[in-house]
Protein: Deoxynucleoside triphosphate triphosphohydrolase SAMHD1-like
Amino acid sequence: MGAFCNEDLSFTPVHANFISSQELRFSKQVHDNVHGNIYLDPLSLKFIDTEQFQRLRDLKQLGMTHMVYPGAVHSRFEHSLGVYWLAGEAVQKLQKCQGLELGIDDFDIQTVKLAGLLHDIGHGPFSHLFEREFLPRIVNGCKWSHEQMSLRMIDHIVDEHHIDVDSEMIKKVKEMIAASSEFKLPKGKGEKHFLYDIVANGRNGIDVDKFDYIVRDSRACGLGCNFEFKRLMETMQVLGDEICYRAKDYLTIHKLFYTRADLYRTVYTHPKVKAIELMVVDALVKANGFLGISSSIDEPSDYWKLDDSIIKSIEIAPDQELKESRDLILRIRRRNLYQFCNEYAVPKDKIEHFKDVTAQDIVCSQKNGGVMLNVEDVAVSNVRIDLARGRHNPLESINFFKDYESEEKFSIPDDRISHLLPTCYQDMIVRVYSKKPELVGAISEAFENFQLKTYGTKTQVHATPEKKKRRL
Structure:
């Protein structure tokens, strides 16, 4: 996994070929370490040069991952510029090849580029930790999402900075951003629906957002990348109002989803990354009553002030109310982390009915007469890794074409390609951590008892080292 390739990961800039010399004069050129020179158009610059967008510089793309992969300090700002650039590349390529039949105009190009630029404008601190792990601990039944906040933040920026932009364009930008989320907005009929496949593809998951972060994250973490998005960018075409791909590129698309899953396994859900994230969540929860962190999600005018620097603010604050949070952050600094006990990979025949394991489940499974555990002593991480469509094969949702003369699109079943492709498309892994080093043995034993009772086996992916069990 994470196979290395010597090929340059940068995407050769061709976008300038589509821009007139007059447009180039009014565009700002910046150098991106993944895509090379990119050009920012005047309207996009009006959004970029706001405090709300500049906030993305203070949001690390991978949250706390840099504590394990030191190079992973790139920001949402860089990623957003990268998605803006690739979105422009994609729509202008389609205009060049099929512009007459598709009716792509300057309005469409600008709309798609803005959607790429602003797709993460409402993102929370510490990657997805804020909305998926912190807020659910604070707000019962919380349905807040960064996609929803992005839509609200766009309106706030337009109003706050009096940006002169077509209201219909903003409406479509928001539709494109929400296209792959559960909060997607209704699209009008006959509205060039293929444009919604570019930034956040709710149809089949192939979009320039993934193209950028897969390459950018792999490079930042020092990993190789065996997926080449340029091939897909250069050969895609629209059939039946949908972006389709050549049948011969089936395995290239499979590599897209496989590489994404590889990053989840080796980087995003690395056991020590998850241990640190569990500690950060506990620190934020303990600080929330005093700082009112969760109240910032109500209004964009408050929310844009929230970024990764909240950890430093807690760390240096003298207030007694923040002592527990400070102590947790100090433990992270000194590498005194929650201790990994062991993990269990849920058998594929039980995945469909799997329910998240809780600390309460582990505590209730301890044997009488041993060390008495409390729920507060145990941390559990339920990790789901898939190919972007849960238990389903994402390639089932993709349509292909035979050659450029063909007007027929079709799907391709796995068994027509290779018998080496997976038969299961999702992993579920339960990891258990001890918040106190002296309780590793007791928690490991309780977790084994839970496994026997629930699954009939106590086979772990990584068993607890004996030296950790003996630590007192």
Summary: The two ends are 37 Å apart (CA to CA). Confidence is low (pLDDT under 50) at residues 1-17.
